[in-house]
Specification:
Number of strands: 2
Strand content: 5-15%
Oligomer: single chain
Order of helices and strands: HEEHHH
Number of helices: 4
Low-confidence stretches: none
Distance between the termini: 17 Å
Shape: globular
Helix content: 55-70%
């Protein structure tokens, strides 16, 4: 059950879509973020067109603040 909660805490809503960030997905698969991104780019035809997108600076700041808030709540809880 803890693993499910851990994954659920790494899902964010951006542009009306539920997404995971590359570094969270890499951690889940126990690989480096760089290796995950390189693998996707090398095999892009294996993934749907909407598999990944780049965040705008505003979106990143919003997500970053959610990550910090979640980390603080975890530390308090």
């Amino acid at each position: 059950m803890q693993i499910i909660k851990s994954i659920q805490n790494r899902i964010y809503e951006i542009r009306g879509e539920r997404v995971m960030l590359d570094f969270d997905l890499a951690a889940l698969y126990e690989v480096e973020t760089k290796a995950l991104n390189q693998s996707v780019k090398r095999n892009i035809k294996r993934f749907p067109d909407d598999f990944m997108f780049r965040l705008t600076p505003v979106e990143w700041e919003s997500i970053r603040s959610q990550i910090v808030t979640a980390s603080l709540e975890k530390a308090d809880g």
